[in-house]
Amino acid sequence: MTPMLQATPLEARALGAEEPIHPGEGRLAHAPADHPDLPQPKIGILLANLGTPDHYDYWSMRRYLNEFLSDKRVIDYPAWKWQPLLQILILSKRPFSSGANYKLIWNHEKGESPLMTITRDQTARIGAEMRARFGNRVIVEFCMRYGNPSTERRVRELVEAGCEKILFFPLYPHYAGATSATANDQFFRALMKVKRQPAVRTVPEYYEHPLYIDALAQSVERAYAALDHRPDVLVASYHGMPKRYLMAGDPYHCQCAKTSRLLRARLGWAEGSIDTTFQSVFGPEEWLKPYTVEHVAELAKAGKKRIAVIAPAFSADCIETLEEINGEIREAFEEAGGAEFTYIPCLNDDEAHIRALAAVIEDNLAGWLTRA
Fold first, then answer.
1. Which of 60, 65, 122, 287 is 20 to 30 A from 304 (CA-CA)?
2. Domain ranges of the chain
3. Rounded distance, CA 363 to CA 303, Å?
4. Would you say domain 210-344 falls under CATH 3.40.50.1400?
């Protein structure tokens, strides 16, 4: 009689079975008695956002801005030319003005920036959704490209928790070298520092995903339903980038334009009812146009007295939306004669947004996990 062969732990895992451990010990069943305890294999889902300073004081702001503005994906000037300007001139003054702006929007109750609060809330809701779909086989965490919690720290923690596979998800609907690419760069640098590298995947942009477009549309519909007067124009303000990045092949501009078209189609609006603009211009060179701050002033002067502004490229409200759009850009519109300015918040942890992000995650887990 041929003896029944028992699958090895590796074979069992390939067949989808959970690898057994000794009860209460965390030690693999096949391991010798003196083998160190190991956690059950898990799959990590690591959400990544841009980043935030730890506080709005000078030195916290300087550390954060130094890391951000030293990134070659963000500012690609030669270091010999850029670093003296950054270290001597920009970082001696900008931390004060940026810190003052952060102070205006700071979550003083929790002692953190709104981006940190919102990203944590998003992670908690996505984690609950993933556990409902996949049980305890997944661990959902978040990291920041700049500041804390760092990508390196989170990767190390996921590996130490037993994640043999990690899905890395930059929370940017649109691809850009200065957002998605630099987040991926940092993720791969973090992997270089762990002894046992997990298998990894990175999530691509989702600017045309139907559930993302639907979540944007729902946010517009809710905002408009709460207004006494319908805005004359909806301005879709996207984060800007130097125009030469587009000329060098970055697809960001085209993806933003498509999101605006798809949003207009989903809302059932006529052509010309949504204007696509770009904000956050930095430095002397030409950036993607039209510039939001100039465009809203032109609308007011042209008789468009009521406008609404939405920021589809941001997955969470942050300094660029809460202070720049709802502050500087609002003021430009009102000073030019505008009467009613409505800022439509980012999708944040809205139910429709979480549903969209969860769908993107599940699509990218295909072959790794199936629903429990």
1. 287
2. 43-205+351-364, 210-344
3. 46
4. yes
CA gap 170, 77 in Å, rounded = 24
* Calpha distance 308→345 (Å, rounded): 11
Residue 269 DSSP SS3: coil
Cα angle 284, 51, 288 (rounded to 5 degrees) comes to 30
**Residue 50 φ then ψ, to 5°:** -60, -55
φ, ψ for residue 199, nearest 5 deg: -70, 145
Phi, psi at 336, each rounded to 5°:
-90, 5
Q: How many angstroms separate the Cα of 354 from the Cα of each of 130, 154, 359?
A: 11, 21, 8
DSSP line for 25-37: T--BTTS-TTSPP
Q: Say how far apart CA 109 and CA 183 lie, in whole Å.
A: 29
Q: How many Å apart are CA 138 and CA 141, to the nearest integer?
A: 10
Same fold, 43-205+351-364 and 210-344: yes
Architecture of domain 43-205+351-364: 3-Layer(aba) Sandwich (3.40)
Backbone angles phi, psi at 214, to 5 degrees: -65, -40
pLDDT, tens digit, 9 for 90 and up, residues 310-330? 999 999 999 999 999 999 999
Reported as a single tens digit per residue, the pLDDT across 136-175 is: 999 999 999 999 999 999 999 999 999 999 999 999 999 9
Task: Print the SS3 string covering 287-347.
Answer: ECCCEHHHHHHHHHHCCCCEEEEECCCCCCCCHHHHHHHHHHHHHHHHHCCCCEEEEECCC
Q: How many CB atoms lie within 10 A of CB 302?
A: 12
Beta strands in the chain, from DSSP E residues, in sequence order:
42-52, 138-147, 163-170, 199-202, 233-239, 274-279, 306-310, 340-344
Q: Which residues have CB under 8 Å from 219's CB, separation 6+?
A: 310, 344, 345, 347, 350, 352
Whether 179 has a pLDDT exceeding 60, the answer reads yes
